[in-house]
Structure to design on (224 residues):
């Protein structure tokens, strides 16, 4: 579990980056978007599988953070990592939207599918899904995790700062390919020190009820 958690914290964002690189469909116009999907089905499916697997492998990482930051009571780090975990679990279901887009792109009457996709994007259920699992779950959870890391000082101070920057870019990036790719790389870099802390722990420390996390040199004592 410890090894998988450390790997997942970095591999998850890197798979998101890979998804961004190869995904052929980025047009804002629905007709152009479905045309991009139809013209590059192999790359589209590969990208969506990579994104889904990225979310799945990220989940053991956030669960590992919950274990790493446990204390006598529920800590901010545990709470934040729990929110991110729920968000990532929800995001794995976005693969279903990709299957729908693929089916729409293959439909003979493309115009009808363009209108249907526009209605789907405007629906309350669709927007609520992204608001709950992406914005309020994954992004907000990562920002709260950054605050917890600043309090505990168990990683260099640049790590939580990058985590906030990467999360914010991920939120505002939306359909912007460059911003989305950049946010994924920043998240991977931001979480690397946390993954390293988990990686170097001994099995005995990992199994303890409260893991002894020494503060960074020159920082204040770790907050409980």
């Amino acid at each position: 579990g410890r090894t998988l958690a450390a790997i997942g914290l970095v591999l998850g964002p890197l798979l998101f980056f890979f998804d961004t690189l190869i995904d052929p469909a980025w047009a804002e116009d629905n007709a152009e978007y479905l045309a991009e999907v139809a013209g590059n089905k192999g790359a589209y499916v590969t990208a969506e599988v990579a994104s889904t697997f990225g979310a799945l492998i990220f989940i053991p990482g956030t669960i590992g953070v919950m274990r790493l930051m446990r204390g006598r009571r529920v800590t901010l780090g545990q709470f934040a990592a729990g929110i991110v975990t729920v968000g990532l679990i929800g995001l794995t279901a976005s693969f279903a939207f990709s299957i729908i887009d693929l089916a729409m792109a293959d439909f003979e009457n493309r115009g009808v599918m363009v209108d249907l996709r526009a209605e789907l994007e405007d629906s309350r259920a669709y927007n609520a899904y992204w608001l709950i699992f992406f914005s309020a779950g994954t992004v907000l959870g990562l920002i709260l995790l950054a605050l917890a890391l600043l309090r505990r000082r168990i990683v260099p101070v640049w790590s939580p700062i990058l985590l906030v920057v990467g999360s914010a870019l991920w939120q505002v990036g939306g359909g912007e390919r460059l911003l989305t790719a950049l946010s994924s790389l920043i998240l991977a870099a931001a979480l690397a020190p946390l993954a390293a802390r988990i990686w170097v722990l001994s099995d005995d420390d990992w199994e303890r009820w409260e893991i002894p996390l020494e503060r960074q040199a020159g920082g204040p004592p770790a907050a409980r």
